[in-house]
């Protein structure tokens, strides 16, 4: 304590409300318009009641407003009757429905085993919601809250669930999500969800829509041959390092000046800029790690203002590709190694990292990260990752982190950036 400050007045410690104290739940429902909340509380204020809880939401122009209050001071039945009559009269004048329910205590405390469940649907069908919520209930979980995160480009809702360990709930819902063709993320609730973090992304078919080696191969006239080897490697049928050497060898003799053309041909995945811009605003660090080439990733780092990058480098001698790569190969194990290195440099614990990728060579990285997101991934990757996103919009990853579309758009509007 600072000795120069006068001794503080003793602060009476607040008494927690007991479960047997009487409370009143006031519920108002009807057409929304300005002033409803102010009107209800002005009506209640005349009875000198205390507010314990307020919940309000508006769905398509209809308001649901709930206020949990103490009974009127003095507690005589006459005064409480007057409160009820006054609230009903006020509601009738506004053509609202009101209900006042007597009871005791506050909301029940949420149970242990708290998770956030994000559901992405494109569309989100009632059948999918029925199947998922039935699973939550049968696993012993309780849905404490539901709200919408986004209506575009997908319908995203978040459910706060308690009563089931996160891992158990994740396993339970993963099966149902695949059946219902929706994407689901189940993460533990808690402060770490709001911490600043590191996001590490794969490049080919994740950050960008292309496979960079195929773009180079097109200029060398060996596209079909390379694509065939790439597909086998990404499906996990071929050792990545071996397949990389085999494909790069096909580029031997190609003029290195095609790099400029390839850079211009690269197409970012829809939502990539929105994702990165929003993460950066939140103070996240963003990295890319690629089995592709620094010839392209360096350009992406500059273009997008990324914090870290690792990729392979095509060797160039006398202005021509030699058909070899130089240095440490970034393969499946290499990607996980780079994730750990970036986390160390960013001073972010591994549990607070998010990795996003589509290929078999991303699996170690996805498993090592706090949250591994399989993005439009091959089946082998989808099955092994924590979470799979199967819509082609990279910014949907923001919803998995609990960020709403509205927040993204509001931040963009502030600095005049159009949201993709
Ligand atoms: Mg990839």
UniProtKB/TrEMBL annotation:
Belongs to the HAD-like hydrolase superfamily. SerB family. Residues 25-108 form the ACT domain. One of its GO terms (molecular function) is hydrolase activity. InterPro entries: ACT-like_dom_sf (IPR045865), ACT_dom (IPR002912), HAD-like_SerB (IPR050582), HAD-like_sf (IPR036412), HAD_sf (IPR023214), PSP (IPR004469), PSP_ACT (IPR049148). It is an enzyme of class 3 (hydrolase). It catalyses: O-phospho-L-serine + H2O = L-serine + phosphate; O-phospho-D-serine + H2O = D-serine + phosphate. It comes from Kitasatospora herbaricolor. It comes from the Bacteria. Its cofactor is Mg(2+). Keywords: Amino-acid biosynthesis, Hydrolase, Magnesium, Metal-binding, Serine biosynthesis. This is phosphoserine phosphatase.
